[in-house]
Amino acid sequence: MEEFLLEYNYTDEFSHYSTDLSLIPLDSAPCHPESLEINSYVLVIIYALVSLLSLLGNSLVMLVVLYTRRTCSVTDVYLLNLAIADLLFALTLPFWAASKMNGWTFGTPMCKMVSFLKEVNFYSSILLLACISMDRYLAIVHATRTLIQKRYLVKFVCLNVWGVSLILSLPMLLFRTTVYPSDFSPVCYEDLGHNTNTGRMVLRILSQIFGFILPLLVMLLCYGFTLRTLFKAQMGQKHRAMKVIFAVVLVFLLCWLPYNLVLLADTLMRNHWIEETCERRNDIDRALEATEILGFLHSCLNPLIYAFIGQKFRYGLLKIMATYGLVSKEFLPKEARPSFVGSSSGNTSTTL
């Protein structure tokens, strides 16, 4: 009977359906996994800072939106849901940070729940960003109020986004478990039985298609038409709106495109569509770990992109602080913009 070597790559613990826990014949010269040379304490500090910034920023966004809910726009409703999604993700980061130090020591129930919350954030955030891009497209390109901009329909869209995200994240609840490989710390990973590798590849491909590629195409198309319209406009406010929209797309791509490109290369390699070598495997594993940290940063950058540079957000936050005597009312500006990222009406279709 052939001897086998158990191979596990720690960098895949966070990746979408990418943990590689497999049996490989010894005579096939298996690779020895090489992780990114980042001290565990540095990673814990990074996760802790991202978690704190995300909790603070998104909590402030939620506070201001709820405080001004009587005058909030369609986009504000999307931003409120986006802040909730990022807030849920921030709550999972301490668990992942702890697992970087000692492995997964929280048991299978927490493994399922924390992985589920992280996955729900992954889907809901990108789907909500796609909804925001469609709202900006309708408001600026068509410059008119549409049926989808009625309050109850916006809530219906948001509920559907959450519903789709929950359904797409169900594999985490069904298949995630705590595994105790010999000579390694315990890990939180998905167990699909005898078809683990095949099933994981199918789930990963579906994750990339519905969780990144399709929403990205929607964003690029909507923002592309929006930018074209803004280029034709000679109004100063619309040019400022163009800069904000460009920043939204740019930051999103900078944070998530590298990770998804590396994940695509890893998928191609594991399906033998490109040649697999030890050097290439280790390069991809290190790139996955580095680019995923970059992707995590997006959750704390969202408040900066969509709210902190917004005139209404500053006004709303200062008004709350003035109400409770934290600042003088003299700091309040005379008026505020109708929305964090612009009104959805035809005559005020500007951004920030």
Automatic annotation (TrEMBL):
The chain crosses the membrane at residues 41-66, 78-97, 122-140, 152-175, 201-223, 244-265. One of its GO terms (molecular function) is C-C chemokine receptor activity. It is found in: Cell membrane. It comes from the Eukaryota. Residues 57-306 form the G-protein coupled receptors family 1 profile domain. CDD domains: 7tmA_CXCR1_2 (cd15178). Keywords: Cell membrane, Chemotaxis, Disulfide bond, G-protein coupled receptor, Glycoprotein, Membrane, Phosphoprotein, Receptor, Transducer, Transmembrane, Transmembrane helix. PROSITE patterns: G_PROTEIN_RECEP_F1_1, G_PROTEIN_RECEP_F1_2. It is a multi-pass membrane protein. Interacts with IL8. Interacts with GNAI2. Belongs to the G-protein coupled receptor 1 family. Receptor for interleukin-8 which is a powerful neutrophil chemotactic factor. Binding of IL-8 to the receptor causes activation of neutrophils. This response is mediated via a G-protein that activates a phosphatidylinositol-calcium second messenger system. Binds to IL-8 with high affinity. Also binds with high affinity to CXCL3, GRO/MGSA and NAP-2. This is C-X-C chemokine receptor type 2. It comes from Heterocephalus glaber. The gene is LOC101712581.
